[in-house]
Specification:
heterodimer, A: 84 residues, alpha+beta, elongated, B: Alpha-Beta Plaits, 4-stranded antiparallel β-sheet, 39% helix
Chain lengths: 84, 270
């Protein structure tokens, strides 16, 4: 891509691209379990996983610890940036 | 601050810090998203969804309270499946809304920044890998294909009358061996299906098998894979799934899509 006019917010790309960028059909709904697979860092296995529980049953080990660590790092960084 | 002031007009909050005790939650990074793209969608907790531009990219964000998304709060909340479900659904609703309008890199759940300056700093810092990710997913959708082996017939048959103990043990051993052979055949089938579909897609990823208590499936999940398929090839890809389903009657082939490219917009460092 060689878009140089970054200020052209209304028409950032040529019209022909706009058409090509549209999916050919409507997107399909996604089951919660599939969303969790994807939104919680699928495939990444780290130690110290948190277990999500439902009605007292340990359901699935998801990589929540990773999410929490990422938030901690981001916020610490932002606070430093704010101070400096 | 690499951008001039007028570039931030889309973001109502401008460059200032958000209200005390709040943060900016990032849903996605898009390229070429129309300004009116978000008129129909609300974010987490019904929040207003806004755009924070940087060069030709925009971050899709909303304001969230830190008492939900701070480190300690998040740790507690993530163990609450009801909270997790409604929040993940809200995240997905925003992604779906923008992904039909522009190339979209969905961000991981709970990507939170202090303010819009921090959002822009992320875009600036990761501009090249973000652009590469958007190039990769542009004009494509994600398809999910799962392969399941049906649950084996359960329960050991009672020893038939007239059969000796040794005969019965031999029979059980044979049954067990047949099950092992069937498992191996099913695993090979799943691998063959994955390899076939991988050649028909721009990229593919295998995800861990899902926990049946969360997914509700029965039997063994042999394949949980994602495929990045150009929209122009979607019909052919779907037909290929159907073909594989009829070719392999011994397993269940579950194909779904298209979805936003959740599994393929990861940055290179991840």
């Amino acid at each position: 891509m060689s878009t140089t006019r970054s200020e052209a917010a209304a028409v950032p790309a040529a019209g022909r691209r706009r058409a090509a960028e549209k999916p050919a059909r409507d997107l399909a709904p996604i089951a919660l379990v599939d969303l969790l697979d994807r939104l919680l860092g699928s495939g990444v296995v780290v130690a110290g996983d948190v277990v999500v529980s439902l009605a007292g049953v340990d359901l699935v080990e998801i990589r929540l610890q990773l999410v929490i660590s990422a938030v901690r790092a981001e916020m610490a960084r932002d606070r430093r940036g704010e101070a400096g | 601050m690499g951008t001039s002031g007028d570039a931030s007009r889309v973001s109502t909050a401008g460059a200032g810090a958000p209200p005390l005790g709040t943060a900016r939650y990032l849903y996605a990074v898009c390229r070429g998203l129309p300004d009116d793209a978000l008129s129909q969608v609300r974010g987490i907790d019904n929040s207003l969804v806004e755009l924070v531009p940087y060069e030709d990219l925009v971050a899709v964000v909303s304001t969230v309270p830190m008492d939900s998304f701070g480190e300690d709060a998040l740790r507690r909340h993530l163990e609450d499946l009801a909270w997790l479900e409604s929040t993940v659904r809200a995240h997905d609703a925003v992604i779906q809304a923008v992904a039909v309008q522009a190339p979209t890199a969905p961000l991981r759940f709970a990507t939170v920044c202090f303010d819009d300056d921090a959002v822009r700093a992320r875009l600036e810092e990761r501009y090249v890998p973000l652009t590469r990710a958007l190039d990769r997913v542009q004009g494509c959708g994600e398809w999910s294909v799962k392969v399941l082996a049906p649950a084996p017939a359960t329960g050991a048959a009672a020893r038939p009358a007239g059969m000796t103990g040794a005969e019965y043990l031999r029979l059980r051993k044979e049954q067990s061996q047949r099950r092992t052979d069937a498992d191996e055949r099913a695993a090979a089938t799943a691998l063959a299906i994955h390899e076939d579909l991988a050649t028909r897609s721009r990229a593919s990823r295998r995800l861990p098998a899902q926990d049946p208590r969360l997914s509700g499936h029965s039997g063994t999940m042999l394949l949980n894979a994602a495929y990045l398929v150009p929209d122009d090839d979607a019909d052919a890809f779907e037909a290929a799934i159907s073909g594989l389903r009829s070719d392999h009657g011994d397993v269940v082939v579950d194909g779904r899509g298209p979805w936003p490219p959740y599994s393929f917009a990861m940055l290179d460092e991840q």
